[in-house]
């Protein structure tokens, strides 16, 4: 058995949105901090306008959904490896197919697949997911319980924010694509 606290339970749609938003923001911080260390520049190009990386919000929410305190630790480790890796793969495929953008490229990394995923980063996702489940998420559950009485309005605002960000992001990418397709007039 995996010794997680029972705080892993998701308490409804409002809680899912809270966890998604917090993890998406933490993912943005993590990725930009990594970029600062590697490239000496904090800001890294982002699909959305705001400071959120949705794939970092989706993976933990899926892990929380599929893992309980009774889940065998081996299954937990397997899910901590597979779920974030699949989220990263499908995020890369969708962004490339629909928006013609590659926000990361592992094609020069050993043990990679189509440049979207690679074993070294999947191992990092396993460790980060384990840390998230073991230590970060129980703290977030406590935080959510503290703000839950006030989160109703915040949840609506967050949904509107994400909808606006996605709308303007898609508009930006469509406009960029249209500009590329317009021939130069001599």
TrEMBL record:
<dbReference type="InterPro" id="IPR010540">
    <property type="entry name" value="CmpB_TMEM229"/>
</dbReference>
<feature type="transmembrane region" description="Helical">
    <location>
        <begin position="42"/>
        <end position="67"/>
    </location>
</feature>
<keyword id="KW-0812">Transmembrane</keyword>
<feature type="transmembrane region" description="Helical">
    <location>
        <begin position="73"/>
        <end position="95"/>
    </location>
</feature>
<protein>
    <submittedName>
        <fullName>ABC transporter permease</fullName>
    </submittedName>
</protein>
<feature type="transmembrane region" description="Helical">
    <location>
        <begin position="148"/>
        <end position="170"/>
    </location>
</feature>
<keyword id="KW-0472">Membrane</keyword>
<feature type="transmembrane region" description="Helical">
    <location>
        <begin position="116"/>
        <end position="136"/>
    </location>
</feature>
<dbReference type="Pfam" id="PF06541">
    <property type="entry name" value="ABC_trans_CmpB"/>
</dbReference>
<keyword id="KW-1133">Transmembrane helix</keyword>
<feature type="transmembrane region" description="Helical">
    <location>
        <begin position="12"/>
        <end position="30"/>
    </location>
</feature>
């Amino acid at each position: 058995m995996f010794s997680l606290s029972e705080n892993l339970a998701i308490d409804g749609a409002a809680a899912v949105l809270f966890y998604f938003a917090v993890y998406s923001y933490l993912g943005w911080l993590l990725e930009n901090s990594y970029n600062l260390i590697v490239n000496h520049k904090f800001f890294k190009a982002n699909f959305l306008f705001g400071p959120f990386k949705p794939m970092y919000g989706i993976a933990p929410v899926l892990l929380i959904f599929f893992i309980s305190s009774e889940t065998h630790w081996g299954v937990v480790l397997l899910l901590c490896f597979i779920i974030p890796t699949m989220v990263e793969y499908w995020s890369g495929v969708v962004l490339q197919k629909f928006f013609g953008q590659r926000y990361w490229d592992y094609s020069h990394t050993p043990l990679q697949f189509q440049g979207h995923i690679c074993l070294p980063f999947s191992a990092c996702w396993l460790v980060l997911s384990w840390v998230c489940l073991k230590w970060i998420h129980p703290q977030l559950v406590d935080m959510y319980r503290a703000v839950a009485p006030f989160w109703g309005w915040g949840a609506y605002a967050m949904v509107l924010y994400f909808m606006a960000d996605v709308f303007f992001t898609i508009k930006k990418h469509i406009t960029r694509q249209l500009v590329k397709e317009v021939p130069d007039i001599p």
